[in-house]
Amino acid sequence: MSSRCALVSKVIPFSCVDGPGSRLALFLQGCNLRCKNCHNPWTMGRCNDCGECAVHCPHEALSYQAGRVYWHEGECQQCDTCLHLCPQQATPMAKTMSVEEVISQIAAAAPFIEGVTVSGGEATTQLPFIEALFRQLKQTPALQHLTCLIDSNGELNISGWERVRPVCDGVMVDLKAWGGELHRELTGRDNGRIKESIRWLAEHRMLSELRLLLIPQHSDYLSAIEPLSAFIAGLGDIPVRLNAFHAHGVYGEAAQWRSAGPDDINALAGALEARGITRLIHPALYL
Description:
By secondary structure, the chain is an alpha/beta fold. The chain has helices spanning 52-56, 81-85, 99-109, 127-139, 158-164, 180-187, 192-203, 225-233, 262-273; strands at 5-15, 23-28, 62-65, 68-71, 95-98, 115-119, 147-152, 170-174, 207-214, 240-244, 280-281. The chain is built from 9 helices and 11 strands. Residues 17-284 form the Radical SAM core domain.
């Protein structure tokens, strides 16, 4: 087996919101976007052991020894003080896990799940680990029935997608804005590579879901409905998930943005349906 390791922020053994059916969701640490609306902003960076969090932990669940921050899980009350303080947008609670350790957790959950989804942060910033993990799953008879999905922002280049293609069953990709300038304003980068990824994944039957996050007053889907609809139509029969922005868990200026409601989603859905985009998935709930 591989000894490849990854920095993991969280493992959810049973999730029904990270792809079809019940799935084990593996959240990897680190992201190459800086989305203002991120609901998990502490997954963006990596701890540099500055020690700022350890000094202020109210439960003494963090210590600073020999230039390193150590997390004492038994003392942690999950108060999130460290997450709010971290200048790196990281978490001291991230763990280094090997493929073998993750496989062990997957095996324990296997009778109750339909697959594994690797998310983030941005999962593909640790692509060699994903490749090794998925390959091991495909080679393990008791786990071969599990589908292997990636939840991605689409920033990976085509050579990266080609690399993981033999062992990946599908990719769910977010298109956070249509216009490149607005996308840069919201995320720190334009979306040229993301659109390229979406097209390539659809062409190679790897795009399992396209996701649009509607942020009232900050999304351009309706104003760009014609090119957006043409783009989606060109992908083939791909489900489009309409996600409603909510401010819960968001830091910074986006915490003051208005949440999207049914009227916002229905307006976008109606505009897409009028242009032949009918395979839409509406939010299960609104916060």
